[in-house]
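explain this chain.
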Amino acid sequence: MNAKPILRVENLHKWFAMLHVLRGISLEIQPREVVVVIGRSGSGKSTLLRCLNFLENPSSGSITIDDLTIETGPGKRLDQKAVRELRSHTGMVFQEFNLFPHMTTLENVIEGLVTVKGMSVDEAVPIGEANLSQVGMLDKRDVHPIRLSGGQKQRVAMARALAMDPTVMLFDEPTSALDPELVGEVLGVMKELAQQGMTMVVVSHEMAFAREVAHRILYVEEGVIVDQGTPEYMFSQSSDPRTRMFLDRVT
């Protein structure tokens, strides 16, 4: 992997009122690396992910994606233009899909291309169709979300994020809202993206996916990365008692 990280987090803190959710997280992610973030509910995993593209504004610390750095902290005014630029380098896939119900599958996918990137519909449609094809949903291009299964909705959400040509894909527990029989189709697309070299940060409870696809696993507890390493290390060699207790409970 390259020596220069594509994403760097330095001393990231996040407070919600008196609750200190992220406590000085520092992290570097290389191009093409797949990093899976694990930990108990409430440990700060999703907050970390949401801070990476400023869906949550960090309380302090800096985030760099693709050589664009945003520093935050008391007295620092957030540059909204820089935030928009940074977001244009990230794709985000949520637990709950967040598709527009009044739009067709294709309209959902091209919405960002038209409204954010300023493309015409004619320019955007071939890109949208190509990304729907990549996730196996081109045959549903004219269907509204209400007629899709949860797994299909999530695949459309992935196509929507990919259409923006992101540098880094962020996945916030993308299978947690799905029925068990639908999980595999979403994880299958994520595996294909990893094989194609997409840089990915994935918050997930899917340990089999983490073991098979991740280059590195981070274990987060109480807003701190307390252990990290390759899947082989984390599942077989880690001596950290917190990691061992967590993995013994979920595997």
In short: The first strand starts at residue 7 and ends at 16.
